[in-house]
Design goal:
Structural class: mainly beta
Order of helices and strands: EEEEEEEEEEE
Distance between the termini: 39 Å
Helix content: under 10%
Number of strands: 11
Radius of gyration: 14 Å
Shape: globular
Length: 116
């Protein structure tokens, strides 16, 4: 099973910035959409942002204007630039790649903690 590899999580102060990245091995094959989800303890996993191969994006209302998703198709990599971070952004962030309806794959998860 091929898994996505995430990096970039950590601890930041409120108002700060953090950049996440997620790489898919070449062996994963053709990818349609890539995105970022997050999950806090005891809460449902929620969509943060998604980007299609052509560059169309969609954001959760809670991060709109603060986060930016991008991807490099040549490198099979998706990024999430997080600015003006708030304590409520604290969660485990998971990247996702899909070729619907054939398959969906996930990263291992990356802890982001925003302190007050």
């Amino acid at each position: 099973q091929v898994q996505l590899v995430e990096s970039g999580g950590g601890l930041v102060q409120a108002g700060g910035s953090l950049r996440l990245s997620c790489a898919a091995p070449r062996s994963i094959g053709s990818i349609n959409a890539m995105g970022w989800y997050r999950q806090a303890p005891g809460k449902q996993r929620e969509l943060v942002a998604v980007i299609t191969k052509s560059g169309s994006t969609n954001y959760s209302d809670s991060v709109k204007g603060r986060f930016t998703i991008s991807r490099d198709n040549a490198k099979n990599t998706v990024y999430l630039e997080m600015n003006s971070l708030k304590p409520e952004d604290t969660a485990v962030y998971y990247c996702n790649a899909e070729r619907t309806p054939y398959w969906t794959r996930w990263g291992q998860g990356n802890q982001v903690t925003v302190s007050t």
